[in-house]
Specification:
The chain is about 65% helix and about 0% strand. It has about 475 residues and is mostly helical. It has a 3-stranded mixed sheet with strand order 1-2-3, covered by helices on one side.
């Protein structure tokens, strides 16, 4: 196939070889930058009680138990939620480095860092210009929610990695059917981790292919790859169903499963409004996500392109499900990769305007607003001595970045994007040196670990109290 549906569609052999080398250069550069950022100061904070306690407790029991022991599984519990993959990986990390906060968070952080070059690879598949893929990767890398939440010992880092691997394999399978097996493996593993939540991603990829490449849905190789990849997942849930049917009747097992599912969904609905997604995006998505509406409008106007179809289907279905079932802030993480793709495409085309045409005025207006906010925050932190030197340096770096970007965009210099990329990276690096990178973790019921031979230190962070007290979060110990 020689039609140019992506940045790989070159007809000249020398150009193909050059493009191949450039791809791996950017892939490893992004991977290195992501690993540095995602693993820096990872063990500074004690474990979060609400989120990290369960995985850490289960992993510790697996680590301390025998290889054949299943004491860590709750007796009589109908385990149709997810396969304990992260718990097993964390237990392996404990064997290598002990049960420290660093080793507890390291597996998820590594998987999350792998998702960054996969954003680039996905961009190379759906964009015809490699620059857009590079921009999308740096936007995704410098999003604060992705960095902060993925560094915690939760499923989020693994889920982001699997989602991007799934989307890359699906995009790649449009011209190479061998990647259908990779799509199936990614989807199956995602269902093992998220249970029925993985079905949403099956719907997203089917809707995207039905709109963009409908011929693939009638291809036996595609469905064969999906089925073979999902076979381990089907085997896991089938074995569990068979096991529990030995002690429960079929109606009892089905009723217990739906009661558990309904309880989880109902719990997530109690404290969530319909505006939750928008509030969370504007709360932690600065500076990039202020340009998301413009990026979505840009995608809508170019809905005949593959990248626009993916953006609209991905965001439309996922946010639609989220509005029906409001959930915690972690459920927002899967929208950040596709948001980065939309914003990157919008900026990439925007900086290519003719020389006599100025950049959109709202670019300058938004950056001026962000610069004023950053300068005010820096002054507030410095005057009232809140958070120590590193927090002041973080705010000063953010203010300098916004001011410089504002000056450059007013002069119609496209390098304001480079300043935003590099400045955001340095600002986040400084922010990770503070004890506040865990963000606000008040929206989940507290988890109390069961008693073990060793002490587990957990913490609940109230991010909103930082600016009022200027003190690090309190620590609660469970023995």
């Amino acid at each position: 196939m020689d039609s140019q549906i992506s940045a790989w569609g070159r007809s000249n052999r020398n150009e193909k070889q050059e493009t191949h080398h450039q791809h791996w250069f950017w892939f490893y550069l992004l991977l290195g930058a992501a690993i540095i950022l995602f693993t820096f100061n990872l063990g500074q904070l004690p474990l979060q009680a609400s989120y990290e306690g369960k995985i850490a407790q289960t992993a510790k029991e697996i680590w301390q138990g025998s290889a054949s022991s299943l004491d860590w599984k709750a007796p009589g519990r109908f385990e149709l939620q997810h396969f304990p993959l992260m718990e097993l990986i964390t237990a392996l990390a404990y064997r290598l480095g002990g049960d420290t906060p660093l080793m507890t968070r390291l597996p998820g952080a590594i998987l999350a860092s792998l998702s960054v070059p996969f954003v680039y690879s996905l961009g190379r598949e759906i964009f015809t210009i490699p620059r857009k893929a590079i921009f999308a990767s740096f936007i995704y890398l410098t999003l604060l929610p992705v960095l902060s939440y993925s560094r915690l010992a939760t499923l989020d880092g693994a889920v982001l990695f699997l989602i991007l691997a799934l989307m890359w394999c699906v995009a790649r399978s449009r011209r190479d059917l061998r990647y259908c097996l990779g799509a199936g493996l990614s989807l199956g593993t995602l269902c093992l981790l998220k249970g029925l939540g993985g079905v949403v991603w099956l719907g997203i990829i089917l809707a995207f292919l039905a709109w963009d490449t409908p011929r693939l849905l009638s291809c036996g190789y595609f469905w064969g790859g999906i089925f073979l990849g999902c076979a381990p997942m089907l085997g896991w849930y089938g074995a569990q169903w068979h096991y529990h049917l030995q002690s429960l009747s079929f109606p009892q097992a089905l009723d217990q499963f739906f009661v558990t599912l309904g309880r989880n969904l109902g719990q997530s609905q109690r404290n969530r409004s319909r505006w939750f997604y928008f509030l969370e995006i504007w709360r932690y998505g600065l500076p990039w996500l202020v340009f998301l509406p413009a990026g979505l409008f840009f995608a809508w106007r170019r809905h005949n392109w593959s990248w626009a179809k993916l953006v609209l289907v991905w965001l439309g279905i996922y946010l639609g499900v989220g509005l029906l079932i409001p959930s915690t802030s972690w459920s927002l993480l899967p929208i950040y990769p596709v948001a980065a793709l939309a914003i990157a495409s919008y900026f990439s085309d925007g900086i290519q305007l003719p020389q006599h045409q100025a950049y959109p005025r709202f670019w300058t207006g938004l950056l001026i607003l962000l610069a004023v906010m950053a300068i005010g925050s820096t002054a507030y932190v410095g005057i009232f001595r809140i958070g120590g030197n590193f927090l002041f340096l973080t705010m000063a770096s953010l203010a300098l970045t916004m001011v410089t970007a504002t000056v450059l965009v007013s002069r119609r210099d496209w390098q304001f994007l480079l300043i935003l990329f590099w400045g955001s990276y340095i600002t986040l690096f400084l922010f990770l040196a503070t004890p506040y990178w865990g963000l606000d973790l008040r929206n989940i019921n507290n988890f109390k670990p069961r008693e073990t031979k060793q002490t587990m230190q957990v913490i609940t962070t109230d991010f909103s109290s930082i600016l009022t007290t200027g003190k690090p979060p309190a620590i609660a110990k469970f023995t």
